[in-house]
Amino acid sequence: MLTHTMIRRILPVAFLAFFVACQPADSIDALFTQLDNKKIGIDFQNNLAYDKDFNVFNYRNFYNGGGVAVGDVNNDGWMDLYFTANQTSNTLYLNNGDMTFTDITESAGVAGQQAWSTGVAMADVNQDGFIDIYVSNSGDIKGDSRANELFLNNGDNTFTEVAEEWGVADQGLSTHGVFFDYDRDGDLDLYVLNNSYRAIGSFNLEKSSREVRDAEGGDKLYRNDGSSFTDVSEAAGIMGSEIGFGLGTTVGDVNGDGWDDIYISNDFFEKDYLYINNQDGTFSEELEKHMRHTSFASMGADMADINNDGAPDIFVTDMLPQGVRRLNQTTTFENWDVYQGKLKWGYYHQFNRNMLHLNTTEGDFSEIGQLSGVEATDWSWGALIADLDNDGWRDIYISNGINHDLTDQDYINYISNEEVMRSIVTKEGVNYKELIDLMPSTRIPNYAYKNVAKGYKFVNKAEDWGLDAPSHSNGSVYADLDNDGDLELIVNNTNQAPFIWRNNAETLLAENHSISLDLRNENGATAIGAKVYGYAGGEMFFAELVPMKGFQSSVDPRIHLGVGAHTSLDSLTIVWGDNTSRLSAVAADSLYVLTAADAQPTQLARAKSTFLQASGEYGSRTENKYSQFNEERLIPQMVTTEGARLAYADINGDGFTDVYQCGAAGEAGKLFLGSNYYGFEEATRNPFKAHAASEDTDAQFFDYDGDGDLDLYVASGSMEAENNSTDLFDRIYKNVGGGKLVYDENALPRLPVRSSSIAVADFDGDGLTDVFVASRGLKGRYGIPANGLYLKNYGNGELRNERRTTRGFQRIGMITDCAAGDVDGDGDADLFTVGDWSGIRLWINDNASFKEQTIEAGFNYSQGLWNTMKLTDVDGDGNLDVIAGNLGENCRLEASVQKPMALFVNDFDGNSSTDPILCSYWGDTLFPRVLRHNLISQLPYLKKENLLYQEYAGKSVFEVFDTLQLERSALLQAQTLQTVIYFNNGNGTFSQGTLPLEAQIAPVYAIDVVDVNGDGAKDIIMGGNLFEVQPEWGRYDASRGTVLLADGTRSFEAAGTAASGLNVEGQVRDIITYKRGDATYVLFSKVNGPMEEYKLAE
């Protein structure tokens, strides 16, 4: 059954006249207009007042605020509003249809009887066609039962409270309730999110109680049995322990199997939960299987499709401030040792920032919040994903703020003073008024992020859109209150009137269109759990219907699809669980009321073929445990896991590729012999064990002794060994025939160079292969540039340091990779290097005399944090191009030519150790990116000039250090963090090309080129990630391997996981391609775990 009404025609003339009369003349210039609450009939306000018995010190969630729910309680076609309050009555407003509201709380009987309300949900619980209200209650107030309340709609604008009768009068510290049909039996079940009773400081983190249910609290799953609910939490696999600090429940089908899953946001030290629906009434908690890290203080969340690929993504809020000043004033981070301890105790990878988890379409997620620019929005609560401007791409709205800055570092230090505490805590008790009034209070604007790059980039438009009023905001919702096809925003504030923001998109952005869908089941109730897929002009618009989301709130129960310039959908598919409806030529700017009456059985989609298929795993590498942070506390990340590179060739002449995998310190490298039957088999008899103490950093097969077979050069480096250790000696293993390798101790000079990479070529044209050795630097001297080493092959099985040539490579940087090839077409091998805080540098070879031509070739302004490079002909023009792997942009740091990152390196305190000071711009000021306590711990002399965090917070690096110190420092810069491609123009110059944003989601450490899709063009495969990063910055783990498809015009498009088939877990350090028979294979080498092999589809 299908009915629809043209949205833009249902606005009464009276409403339009009212709107024009009551708003300022210039308000229409912004996308949103804040309505005058008094004029529209909203007089609710969530006011908080503390006393000595009840305040933030004895109830930690005192400032968490209230929620908002949206629903049509009287079935008149207009969305009504319900606000929850913490210390006053909850309030229900009827929408009069002209953007005015009438308070019917008292007559409806829905004010609530409990002392402290939190979340609210609206859903038709008894499936009678009228929406009901479920209120979560909390607080720790004497005499209050905290029982949650269920108000059943009587159909006459009155309600009856039946929570006890229906079995859902939960008495935990409830945050929110979510209704959904987890068992697909046709009725709505209930998940109640509860927060722990226990004080944070009372836990022994080494003894997790996650599996022990809390009899008084804990999360609950209630099954709907028709006229009552049954607690099935334990049987269903729902955890309800005392370490659950739940602040958000988000429901949706994350893995696309047609059954709703659950994401739980947990505050404090406990990890978040991802419950995967087992389709048998039970769930499995599988967060660690599907996500690589989460927020530390997870709060609100939403689940929706941000990149229009038909899979729900998840956005979770945290507390990280955006600006440097407020960050320095209010924030601390765990150190590496604490982080490692929590990992050992089972609390998983958690970092202090918002997270945007991008669904790879199969329920596996890559976290791209920093790339997207949405990671830092201060103390954030509500998270809403919705298309606010109807351009066809969902935006993100975040409500934030807390009544007092509980984490202000100066406040914490002040009240920690023994004398201050004696004045506050006396024999009469604690003076809570003084204790709380000393805390700063800062109102900041909420954030409204516009989706500007298909889910990969967002820009904060709060000010431009008129949404920048400072506040302490909590629950928030979106709803089309005036039925004009765009979404209003409603925000519940603390000690401030709620915001009602009218959306003006129908006027300002009339070129954009939308479709609204009111989905109903056979009973006339909202069809929670239904999915819709709209198609227009090759684009897809996907949504799921689960209104309870954000923070303590429930949004408009009608699906809203912004469709941009499309005036209609080519087709619309609605999935109602087991059945599906399909419509064609669906006009935009309309509201459709749809039921499942004419739906047909849903057919499961067939599995799609992929470009690559996993074909095998070989060996297993284990990186040694080592913390560089113990010696260099100010560096943001370690440089000790850059090994695991591969050398490959047919060394035994059997026609199959053989592979050497570099070993970690304490674990010898391994040789794998190729076979047509087994893929690779490890050669058990080899000479590598004698050098297991060395950390291999690179390796290559070449004929060093001119006997016609391939020998093996292995470079040693990393930061574990001392600077003069023999473990740093590079080695050559001579092939004595048939692939048998024997260590040749006389082949190389015994120099303790901390090698990072090697490039082999006949640089001097004498027919013998020479070697360039790059170095990362010295142990304990991060930031100090290292020397390159040129080893000339003298033809007698010896390579020796050619000092004249080596002198040209003095202090060339912290080099991470190098490559040799004829880039100028003169017949000899030229040399490239890339490095940490270095540029892409080119040395042109003239008979082993090297002249740097970096700037002339077009690589000026290329300084970055480079990890690797690939020198190959990408575009098929016969010239060697450059692909270089950088840190990427999925990080909190930013760099540009105009505002480069900086690293000042000096012994600032004269203690004979190097102090690298990382700096970056915020606005036009270069700030040290070191928190005050960390800086003073390293440089105690700075304390007297920075006694308060407030004094330090706004200082530039030039105010923290004196001019002479900085002038005498080594200054390194990074002007770009992007992984890039440079095309060779064939005339000695290069032009930078463009790679998709997917290439920037993680540090790139490995690159190879092969025609993946069989179209004749060379495609790019990348891998990377870096886990050994200070918790302040969080580990970089978003890559599962990236495939960039070439279109033959020097442009590339990323193939998603579903299309590429690539899903490599871990830290990739090398990628090689090779043939076995007629098939092409790709092998990935990782820091830990087995090598993974993929076969190209034929």
Comma- or semicolon-separated keywords:
mainly beta; disordered N terminus; 20 helices; globular; five-stranded antiparallel beta sheet; Methylamine Dehydrogenase, Chain H; 1098 residues; 3 domains; 10% helix
Question: Could you characterize the architecture of this molecule?
Answer:
It contains 20 helices and 78 strands. The chain is mainly beta and 1098 residues long. The protein has three domains: 414 residues, Methylamine Dehydrogenase, Chain H; 295 residues, Methylamine Dehydrogenase, Chain H, CATH 2.130.10; 72 residues, no CATH class. A hairpin with an 8-residue loop joins strand 20 and strand 21. The longest helix is centred in the first third of the chain and has 10 residues. The radius of gyration is 31 Å and the shape is globular. It starts with a strand and ends with a strand. The relative contact order is 0.09. The N terminus is likely disordered.
Please give a quick description of this structure.
This protein is mainly beta and 1098 residues long. It is built from 20 helices and 78 strands.
What's the CATH class of the largest domain, please?
Answer: Mainly Beta
**Quaternary state, please?**
single chain
Number of domains: 3
Remind me, CATH topology of the largest domain? Methylamine Dehydrogenase, Chain H
The CATH H-level superfamily of the largest domain is YVTN repeat-like/Quinoprotein amine dehydrogenase
Instruction: State the shape.
Output: globular
Number of helices: 20
Task: Work out the number of β strands.
Answer: 78
* Largest sheet composition: 5 strands, antiparallel
